[in-house]
Every structure is written in structure tokens, then in C-alpha cells.
Amino acid sequence: MKKSFLICLLILFATPSLAHSEEPTDVLKNTVILGIAILKDPQYKVASKKEEQRELLCNTAGRVFDFREFSRRVLALKWQSFTPEEKKEFVEVFAEFLCKYYITRLQERYNDEKVIYLSQQFIGTRVARVRVNVLWKGLEVPVEVRMLKRNSTWKVYDIVVLGISGVMNYRAQFQDLFRNESLSQIIGRIRKRIKQEERRG
Known about the structure:
CATH class: Alpha Beta
Shape: globular
Strand content: 15-25%
Radius of gyration: 17 Å
Strand order of the largest sheet: 1-2-3-4-5
CATH architecture: Roll
Number of domains: 1
CATH superfamily: Tgt2/MlaC
CATH topology: Nuclear Transport Factor 2, Chain: A
Structural class: alpha+beta
Oligomer: single chain
Order of helices and strands: HHHHHEEEEEHH
Largest sheet: 5 strands, antiparallel
Number of helices: 7
Distance between the termini: 22 Å
């Protein structure tokens, strides 16, 4: 599951287009092109360049992935109980963890996987679901990318791999944590995980 999800991060690395007519699938196709280009760039093959590559991928992902919307959905009803400052801090720390954790592993494991575009479905005018298959070691892994339209630009807010939603997966984890810990304690826990990832890299 984790390996297939890592490869699906390829679809997060597109820079938003200024074109008003761009379809969600267009965003994803551009994403794959850019993500693969960064991953395959020869200058990043040396260990000393991996951090620079990871930062580039994280920054690019941040322009297309709506971390605030993802966080809001992950925290569900808890989100409303936090102040604007608390929400901002949580989103920033959670986004940093997600980028460092998943992109580090994507750097390690990417091996010319391909994406097959199947369909896109609009739910109203501002929500879309794009279905793709990711070729992983000879298998086709079904993926659904959920997107919102923000100021004429499509943003990813959830990825469903093999029927498992990223939002729902993390929501369950945080619900367990909130039974015994405060928001500040949980943010501290995430910061520790970030430091672990930095030492790992």
C-alpha cells in the first residue's frame, strides 16, 4: 500500500496553469511530466543533491496539493475547535511531515513507473475525480485523485489508492491520538517525526 501511494505522489508535482480551460486530467498529465523530469534529472543522482531534489519536489507539490483542505478533512469536527493560529501551525507542520516522509521514499523507490489515464468525473462545477492506473512492477494499481477548483486552478485534496483514502486513513490515526493528547502535543509528535526523517535523509 505504501509503495503504491508513493508512486501516486507523481501526480502532485504540476505547477498550476493560468489557462481557465484546463481540465483536471490536464493538470495531472503535466504533473507526471514534471515529476518524472525532476526524479530522472542526472544532477540529483549523487547523494549530496538529494536534499535539493527533495526540496524542489516538496515546493512543487505545495503549489498543487491543497494541504489546508486535506488537513481540514483529516481533522473533521476537531478542525472547528481550533484557532486560526492553531490551524495554520498544524497545516504547516503536517505538510512538512507529509512531504519529507513520502517524497524521501519516492526518491528511493521510483523506477520508471507509468500512469494510465482512465476517466474524469465532475461533481458539480468545482469538484472532480480523476481515475488512473499506476503501473507498479507489472501490476496496475487503481488510483482516484480528488480535486477542487480554486480560483480557476485545480487542486488535489485527497488520493484514494486501492480504495483507501488518504484523508480517511489519517483521520483514523488522529482520532486515536486526540483521545489522549492535546493539539500541541500532537504537533510536537509530528515535529519529532520530521526530525527523524531529517536524520534518516
